[in-house]
Structure formats: structure tokens, C-alpha cells
Amino acid sequence: MKWKTVIGYTEPKAVEVGKTTVYLRRNATKIKDKEGNDAWSYEERQMSLAEYEKYLELMESPEMLIILERFEMQEEENADALLNQMSIMATQSAQDETLANILLNQMSQMEVN
Asked: Which residues lie closer than 8 Å to 56 by C-beta, 6 or more apart?
């Protein structure tokens, strides 16, 4: 599928079905245009009604459902791994701060003596 980036001034619908054409939209983000007006940037794909029916059949096929389920599981695993990394980094940061305080206290005591 070929997606093109589009800028519009109304919030885009994910799917818009016309008389002969279907518009699929994804990755919508609210932006400011060159004049500072509110706008929407998104990717859009146009297809005929026949292509859209085939697309729906494919997306609802057992094979695609398995792929999507596996993809979702992988995303959850990635999110868990990122949370674990953030926790480790927070712990390391706290340890670094504690060590820095210990060193500063020792240096202060050395200056007093």
C-alpha cells in the first residue's frame, strides 16, 4: 500500500467510505500550519471499494489475526523491557547520588581536619 502524508483542517476519520473510493488514514497528529493555524497531519491511502473489500477480508483472516496477536504480544514485551530499563536507570541514578554525597561528606571532613 502506498501512503502519502496529507495536511487537513478537520480531524481525520480512520476510514471514510465514498461512492467509489475509500480513504484509510493513520498516524494523525495535531499541528500548526505555516500561518499558525490548527491543522492535522496524517498518512492517507486511497483505494477502490473492491480493493477495500479485499483489504477487509485479509485483515479479518485467521492468519492476519494470528500475526496481529503476536505483534501485540511483542509490543507488550517491549514495553515491559523498557519499564525494567527505566527502573534500573532510576536505581543507578539514586546510587550515583548516594555515592556523590558520601564523597562530598568525606571531602568536607578532610577539609575540617
From this structure: none
Residue 79, CB-side half-sphere exposure with 13 Å CA sphere: 6
Q: Of 32, 28, 31, which Cα lies nearest the Cα of 42?
A: 28
> For the whole model, what pTM was predicted?
0.56
Q: Is there a contact between 42 and 25 (Cβ–Cβ < 8 Å)?
A: yes
Please enumerate in sequence order all residues whose Cβ is within 8 A of that of 51, keeping only pairs 6 or more positions apart, or say none: 22
3-state secondary structure at position 55: helix
Neighbours of 95 (CB within 10 A): 10
| 40-66 pLDDT per residue, tens | 999 999 999 999 999 898 888 988 889
Cβ(34)–Cβ(4) below 8 Å: no
3-state secondary structure of 113: coil
